[in-house]
Amino acid sequence: TILVDTGEYPLFDSIAVSGSRDLGLGLDEGFRITGPTAESAVAHLFPAVAGARPAALIELVDADFVTVEHFTLTDATRGLWVHDGSERFRASFVTASGHLQEGIRISTGSPNSEFRGLVAFDNDATGISLDGSFGQILDARAHDNTGDGLRIDGAVGKVDRAIAYRNRDHGLYLQNPGAVSVERSEAYENR
Q1: Using CA atoms, how far apart are residues 140 and 12, in angstroms rounded to an integer?
Q2: Rounded-to-integer distance, Cα 118 and Cα 58, Å
Q3: Burial level of 148, CB count in 10 A (0-12/13-18/19+)?
Q4: What letters, b where the CB count within 10 A reaches 16 and e where it falls short, cover 7-44?
Q5: What is the DSSP-derived secondary structure letter of residue 60?
Q6: Strand partners, 33
Q7: Helices and strands (DSSP H and E) totals, the chain
Q8: What is the largest distance, in Å, between two alpha-carbon atoms of the chain?
Q9: Is residue 63 within 8 Å of 86, Cβ to Cβ?
Q10: Measured distance CA(178)–CA(182) in Å, rounded
Q11: Residue 65 has pLDDT above 90, yes or no
Q12: Distance (Å, rounded) from C-alpha 62 to C-alpha 19?
């Protein structure tokens, strides 16, 4: 487990981790990186150079069994980007805003994972984009994004208490979700 304390963290480089190629931090997978868990405490990651837009502030490339929790990510190309076979990924309480593309983009096979408290706003594409298979999406919030608020492409078991509003495209968009249960969710003032 990697623990990140409360504070402002200007990044010169992304936190980029891979299980198959060295992105500067060696080969790694099967770990948890977490900011502070107290509700009023924030670990805020952002580019160190004003106007710089790294590909993502936290990027996982083929890094399996990783958990990312309790971060605020602002002003990059993407906040959190999980791709290229990063299986069994989990995320909770990640807030992403001000990005040139998706605030949170996760492409994974995580059919039993729970994703709780993902928040995305003021991004220049979709707020939260999930592609693959997912267990549960709980307490997601997406607003004021240029694209969709919350977009899920693939199988998902349950979406509960999702709120999407004032997005320029769809609020909640599910494509090929399988036998999904959508409960206590709201979408309004979208598109």
Answers
A1: 29
A2: 14
A3: buried
A4: eebebeebbbbbbeeebeeeeebeeebbbbeeeeeebb
A5: E
A6: 2, 68
A7: 0, 19
A8: 45
A9: yes
A10: 12
A11: yes
A12: 5
What are the C-alpha distances in Å from 43 to residues 4, 37, 46, 104, 149? 7, 10, 10, 16, 24
Token pair for residue 186? 């709201």
* Encoded tokens for 157: 């078991």
pLDDT at residue 21, as a whole number: 81
| Tokens linked to 124 | 């220049």
Amino acid at 157: G
On whether the CB atoms of residues 129 and 151 are closer than 8 A, the answer is yes
Q: Is 67 left (phi over 0), alpha (psi -120 to 50) or beta?
A: beta
**Tokens for 69?**
């929790």
At 53, the amino acid letter reads: R
| Three-class DSSP labels, 107-140 | EEEEEEEEEECCEEECCCCCCEEEEEEEEEEECC
- Evaluate if residue 22 carries a pLDDT over 80: no
- Residue with tokens 């969709």, as numbered in its chain: 148
Give 182's strand partners: 159
List of residues 6+ apart from 29 with CB closer than 8 A: 17, 19, 62, 63, 64, 65, 66
Token pair, residue 34, equals: 């977490």
Is the pLDDT at 74 greater than 80, yes or no? Answer: yes
Look at 12-21, 33-42, 96-105 and tell me which has the smallest mean pLDDT.
12-21
Q: Does the pLDDT of residue 153 top 90, yes or no? A: yes
